[in-house]
Amino acid sequence: SVLRRAIAGGELVNYYQPKVALHSGRIEGVETLVRWQHPRDGLIFPDRFIATAEEHGLIHDLTFTVLSEALRQARVWMDDGLSLRVAVNVSMSNLTSLEFPEQVMQCAAEAGVDLKHLVLEVTESRMMSNPVSSLDILSRLRLKHISLSIDDFGTGHSSLSQLRDVPFDELKIDRSFVHGACRDSSLRAILEGSLGMARELGMRAVAEGVEDRDDWEFLCEAGCDLAQGYYIARPMPANNLRHWIEEWSERVVDMGVAVV
Ligand code: C2E
Ligand code: MG
Ligand code: MG
Which end of the chain has fewer CB atoms < 10 Å from its terminal CB, N or C? Predict the structure, then answer.
């Protein structure tokens, strides 16, 4: 298929979006977001090809193409004095294979990146469709000190007890509950409830879809740990990150947040 050739032929490019600490503005990590650089159609977004990859048995190859490039890039940043946690999105289909944890470890070893710098994001709504075998694989990943993040939180139906059973250490609140929460009392209730849950369970809370100054300030006061979104930065090619950090540190000073 066309997608198979694109994966093998190097047409996938990783973009990276910063995750920053709300109390200090400091960049803590980046999320890897894949794009397909199509020779004729230009840049294609993942919503248009991830499901196809899953349906056609290509998701293993896609995930490891993205992961190995992200780990290679993490090593480059580290050698450049930038110690970042690098997050990669994994599909539910990746978590059906018992070899998956070993393959991830091998990938990190080849790149020379310690597993504590790696975060795997799993979407909440897809996770609960297959809780038993995936739980085992998630636990094995966690035992290797890989961080696990529950993505798009609030869009699935996980109960408190399910959340407690799965060894997640990061909770990413879906952007539909983040942007504009300060002006909408029902969004605010969901957001604050999610933050309380993260705190109770000892998980770091990340708000996605932070689009403006009001979102930022509200999250700060609500005690959220990390923020990600267009207000901070759009996803960008790896080479733009250095320059973005310089601009951002100036913006943070103007915002009245001290960068630690
Ligand atoms: P996600 O993991 O929840 O990633 C966040 C998405 O929200 C990204 O879309 C990002 O560009 C977008 N976003 C970030 N900040 C804002 C904001 O302030 N406002 C709004 N409206 N949107 C924002 P993107 O890059 O199109 O990715 C869509 C989804 O595709 C991702 O959602 C993720 O589930 C999936 N995906 C991306 N890369 C991969 C991958 O390598 N493997 C797998 N399996 N899935 C991937
Ligand atoms: Mg994600
Ligand atoms: Mg998300």
Answer: C
